[in-house]
Amino acid sequence: MGLKFRLTVMNFLQFFVWGAWLITVANYWFGTKGWAPDQFGMVFMTLGIASLIMPTLTGILADRVFNAEKIYGVVHLLSGAAIFALPFATSPTQFFWIILAAMMFYMPTIALTNTISYNALKEAGHDVVKVFPGIRVWGTIGFIAAMWVTNLTGSKATEYQFYISAAASLVLGIYSFTLPKCPPNKGPREKRTIIQTLGLDAFKLMSSYKMFIFFLFSMFLGAALQLTNMYGDVFLDEFKYVTEYADSIVVKYSTIFMSISQGSETLFILAIPFFLKRFGIKKVMLMSMFAWVLRFGLFSYGNPGGFLWMIILSNIIYGMAFDFFNISGSLFVETETPTKYRGSAQGLFMMMTNGFGAIIGSVVSGFIIKEFFMSTGGERDWPGIWITFAAYALVVAFLFMILFRHKHNPKDPALQNVSH
Known about the structure:
Elements: H1 3-19, H2 25-33, H3 37-64, H4 68-85, H5 92-123, H6 128-152, H7 160-176, H8 194-197, H9 209-237, H10 249-252, H11 254-279, H12 281-301, H13 308-336, H14 342-372, H15 382-403, H16 413-416
Helix pairs in contact: 1-5, 1-6, 1-7, 2-9, 3-5, 3-14, 4-5, 4-7, 6-11, 9-13, 9-14, 9-15, 11-12, 11-13, 12-13, 12-15, 13-14
């Protein structure tokens, strides 16, 4: 097999593992187990906790001790074992600890996937900037494929979604040991403090007003992302309790409808170079924030009947909401931070979005829904929930517009080289 194909398989399976349960776990929690809604936030809080700790630790091991592809294989096998054990949890607390273990092993694999891909492509003499995006897009396709498999096999509210994910983890874990070698750096190393080693020196960037505001709003948008991951599929599925929509195609194939969101990512990724060069990072990030307002707002009024178009449009808009912030934000960090901090600054960006943002979004949303948008019979007021989330995104957007100051330079060399 050719190198590009081998890396494509790795990226496909990497996100297939996640897509098999991430969007549908709420159906299992609420529908099958009937566990408390305020405790559901704990599930997605594990993503944040793991993102704060494990990527840095596995990165140090890959840089200094073991081959990255071997670490990658081991942690995928361990993650898969934990996911396999999830159906045996008999309480929310047990479920939390098992999924925390799974995420501790899974979250660092996202960065390791890039590390292995970059190293293999460079060793083979490929232009990483040109070649990697075409490989990485298969990760999104893998995520979509897993959602379809989970839905079409009738597994979106059952324990089988976890078995599908665990099986893919087993395959990927074994496959990882056949990947091109990515050895640690054995050469002389610059003496670094523990603060530098852990990437915490990037916090010095917070002393800059512009960077402080940027990272603060990165956290706020990280919280918004968790809202759609946590509640999107269960929202569509619960139309089954409305008589006129009970047998609708949206209820039957809710996960497939949600996969439109991931499909739209692949389209908006291609549009980013044009928008960044023409409008600049601040405006592109604002487009992302207002896209979140539309994402939630359309959900609040959408239904499987006459307003099905709102649900479909909301899923299409997700691509702009997600991609325009993540990629433009990463580019902003790349162009606005000193060279010696860039690696740590990218880690800080991920920590604020997938770490602190995920934790805040998970905990606060669970509390708000339980306290203000649930009836005594356990029914959720979905229009009220989505309007509240839309209002949150709108406030974030206006505050960012006022507080963030950045002058667009269309001749910035970094903007000329955005290819993904």
